[in-house]
Amino acid sequence: MNERWTRKDLLGLRELSIDEINFILETADAFKQVGAREIKKVPALRGKTLVNFFVEPSTRTRTSFELAAFRLSADVINITASGSSLTKGETLKDTAKNLEALHADILVLRHSSAGAPQFLAERLKSSVINAGDGAHEHPTQGLLDAYTIREKRGKIDNLHVVIIGDILFSRVARSNIFCLTKLGARVTLVGPSTLVPRDFEKLGVTVSHKIDNVLPDADVVNLLRIQHERQRKEYFPGTGEYTRLFGLTKARAKMLKPDCLVMHPGPINRGVEIDSEVADGSRSVILDQVTNGLAVRMAVLYLCGGIAT
Ligand code: CP
Hints:
It is built from 11 helices and 9 strands. By secondary structure, it is an alpha/beta fold. Strand 3, helix 4 (116-121) and strand 4 form a beta-alpha-beta unit.
């Protein structure tokens, strides 16, 4: 066992130490180099079985975990809510216990309920990886965002990272806040007061409701989409109004420093939180985030999968 990593599960970044986060990022560096080789596969998880259990839709995270598992030589099974016995009334715990009875070593879970991965992690011997739970956390997204910033800027410490949008309902925002503040970044959250309440300042970040005051000083801007699926009512007048007040339009992008990184976890609502040309522009590292997600998820599967019994 490696003394820098002793966890069978990755549930969130709030509970990780700075050293644990750095160890995942360093391990991801090694796997990124593997991805540049002609033969991109390593035998690290040969003989292990990974179940990708996605109860909510996903493009990037599900594909990335599946490819990461293939690259580590694990066997992979994909299950979706509609294709599982959850639709017949089976509980999440019973489904997971049955998967464990089939000797699943690693369960990657996306679920609309915050805490679902923790619930299973406490009841299973298998490794449980949180692939996004409700508005709680999306730890591998937070890690791949940190990895991308460190790769592009050479450091995270003392950078000013501005996260714009629907913070209240965003698991990506929470994982970014926990990760980036631990690694020494200065984080500012921007959006309407309904979606970015002052309460977030308790997490060691600054809250602003005036995007134009914040953009010129940003080293990184991370745009989040409006999480319509998690909102019980509208928290702003409409998408047109949102774009006018908080969208990264072409005019606003001119306020950014030349080396400011433009990030987005996806899926993008082009023309709402970000202008289409800005999303595809020279400052954008949105597709680099996706590429780096593979190395980060290989690192997470390798580290947690090596602990699970
Ligand atoms: N960023 C992210 O979680 O994307 P998906 O919902 O497509 O997985």
